[in-house]
Amino acid sequence: MKRPVLTLLTAALAAHAGALTSQAAAEAQARAILPSLSLDDRIGQVSMAHVFRFTEGGRSAPLRADADATFRALRPGTLLNGGGDAPQPNTPRGWADFLGRLDTLGRANNPANLPAVFGTDAVHGVNNVPVATLYPHNLGLGAAFDPALTREVALATAQDMRAMNMGWTFAPVADVGRDPRWGRYYETFGESPWLVADQVEASVDGLQAGGVAATLKHFTGYGLPSLGMDRANAEISTRALHEVFLPPFRAGIHAGALSVMANSGSVNGVPVHSSHALLTDLLRGELGFGGLLVSDWNDIERLITTYRTHTDLVRAAAASVNAGIDVYMVPNSVEAYQSALKEAVQSGLVSEARLAEATLRVLTFKARLGLLDAPLSGSGVLNDHRDLARRAAAATLTLLENPAGTLPIRKGRVLVTGPAMDSAAIQLGGWSVNWQGVGKGNVPDVPKVATLAPALKASAPAGVTVSALPDSKRPQLLTAAKGADVIVVAVGEAPGAESQANNPALSLPDGQITLLRDLLATGKPVVAVLMAGRPLILPTDIQSRLSGLVMAYLPGTQGGAALADALYGRAGFPGRLPFTWPDSLTQMGLWSDRPAEGAGETPLPLYPLGYGLDYTTSVARDLTVTPTRDGVTAQATLTNTGEKAGTVTVLLRASLPASGALQATSRLVGVLRAVLKPGESRAVQVTVSRERLSSWVGDAYGSGTWQLLPGTYTLSAGDGKAPLTLP
C-alpha cells in the first residue's frame, strides 16, 4: 500500500522523537488495511512467533537464508524473544541490525507489507543485553515511593529500546504483591494497591513518552497465588478484586497503556485465559480498556495440558479468543495454533467478526507505534544511564536496624564478606541477561556491575581501611574478623524467576545463616546487607544481635556504589518498606490493609509497611484536609528534626465510614515526601481522588458497587489526624 511521501516523512520524524500516533489516526489506518487481509492473513496477524523461528538452528545465530519463506508461511503479526534468547552478537548494534533485518523481511513478505512488531521483557532496563544499564527491580522502586523516579527509569529504558529497534515491552507488572513467598514478588511494586497504582501509572507514562508500548501484566489476581506458588489458583472475592487487585490496572489504563497481558494462572478455579468475565466484561467493559490483549507464554495450550479444562487446541483456542485474547504468544507451535484457530472460525466456534476485531487491534497497535509508515532505524547506540541507576538504587535503600549507631562507618578496619559482596548475579536478580539471572541457562555473559566490596574499597574515607574475604575461606575469614572493627556481610537470594524463585520458607540458604552466626560469635559489630526480592525471616538469635540491617532489594547495575555511599554516610537511607515484613510464616496474609478480626486481635509484624530508619529524624505536623470537586487535598508540614539532610517520607492513610462489610483499620491513599536539610520544614500536599476513598459495597455473594459513602473520614499522616465529613 503506497502512501504520500509527506506522510512517511511525518511518521518517521514522530517515531524518531518517540511520539505515539493518536488512537483515532491509528485506527483509521488499520481500518483501511483490514479488508485486504484474507482469513489466513488475519490468523497470522494474531499469532506471536519466536524470533528463533527465523535463525539458523533455532538458536542465537544469524538469520536463515530462507527466513523470507518462514514469514510467508506464518504471516506473523508479532514476534518475541524468550528471556536470554538473543541474536549474535548480543550487543546493542547486534540487536538493532537483527531486528532491522526482521522488520525488512516482514515488510517484504507479509501481506499488505505489514511489519511484525517485536515485543520483549524489558522489566528493569533492557535486561537481555549485557551492556545495558539495569535498574532496581520494581520492589526496590516501590521502596523509593517516588513515581517521578520510576517514570525517569521507564523513559531511559524506552530510549535504550528504541535505539535497538525494540518498540514493545512486557512491562510494567501491575500485580499487587500479597504473598512474599511467590517467585515474582520482586517484580511487583509492593502490597498497597493505590501506591502500586501510582508507580504503574508513572511507568506507563515514561515508557510511552519514549515511544515504547507498555504492557500491564498480569490481568488479574496473579499476585495472590495459593501457598505462594507461581501460577497457583487465586481465590478472590469480588470486593477484594475491586479494592485490591484492580486499582493498578485501572491506573495504567488511565495512563494510556497500549497493551495488557493476561494472567497465566486461574481465579476462583477458572483459568484467566478462558475467562470472558475477566478479559471482556471486566477489562474491556468495566475498566474501559481498548488496546491489545496478549496471552502469556503458551497459555492457551496450558488449558489442555495443565488445567485440563479443554479437550483439544481447537476448543481451547476458541475459548481463549472468545474470552478476549487478541494475540497468542505461541512461540514454538505457531502452525498448530493457526490451524486450530482456522478450524474454529470455519466451524463457527469463533466468529469472523471476533477475529476481525482482534486483527484490527493488532493493526491499530502497530499504527500507534508508527510501524505502518516508517521502517525501523535504531542507532544501535545506548546512552550512559549509570548516574540514573545509581540514583535509583540509592533511593531504594532501607535501613531496618542500627541499634548502637554503628552506621555510618567513619573510621577503623572494615571486613567485607558474604556471597553477595561481589556477585552480579545476586545483585541483579532474575530477568538479567537470562530470565533466571546471570550465569543461568544459555547466556555466558556477565554484565559490568558496581558491586559492594570493590565499591567499599574504592571509596573508603580517610581513616577507614577495607579488606574483603569470601565466605568460602572460613578459617581465614574468622581470623580476619577478630581484627576488624566492623564486619559488613552481604547476603541474599540466588537469582531466579517465576516458579524457580519461589521461597516457601522465606529464608536465606542454610550456609548463609551459619556464616552470620559464625561472624556474630566473634563479638564484633556485624552489619548485614540483604539483597533479596522479598522480606526474609532471620532466626531470632541473629536478628536480635545484628549491629545493622540494610534491605537493599535487588539494586541493579550501580547497587554497590549506592550502598557504599550510604554505609559511609555520604548519603542517607531514603527507602521505606513497600510491604509488611512478617516475623514468622504464621503471619502470611498480614497486610497493612487487613481488617480487624472478629476476636479483635491485631498481630504486629516485625516491620510495618512504610518502615525505615535514617541518619536523621523527622516529624509531620499540621495535617489539614480540604474537599475538592474530585476528592480531597491533604497537606502537612514535614520537618527534618535531625542534624543531617534526608528524605522524609510519610504515608497518608484514610479510615472510612462503615460500609456494611469489613474495612481496613486504615487504607493507604497517598504519600507525602520531601528532601530536607537539617532543621528545614516544608508544607507538602497530595490530592486524593474520590475513588481512593470509595468502598465496594455489597453482600458476601452477588454484585456490588463503588460508593463514596456519607459520613466521617479520618485522614492521618504520622501522628497527625484530620477528620473530614462527606455528605
What does this structure look like?
With 727 residues, this protein is an alpha/beta fold. It has 23 helices and 25 strands. The strands form 7 sheets. Strands 11-16-15-14-12-13 form a 6-stranded mixed β-sheet, with helices on both faces. A 5-stranded parallel β-sheet has the order 4-3-2-1-10. Strand 14, helix 20 and strand 15 form a beta-alpha-beta unit. Helix 3 crosses helix 15 and helix 4 crosses helix 5. It is globular. The chain starts with a helix and ends with a strand. The relative contact order is 0.11. The N terminus is likely disordered.
Strand content: 15-25%
Strand order of the largest sheet: 11-16-15-14-12-13
Mean pLDDT: 95
Strand count: 25
Which stretches are low in confidence, meaning pLDDT under 50 for 5 or more residues running? 1-17
How would you describe the shape?
globular
State the helix count.
Answer: 23
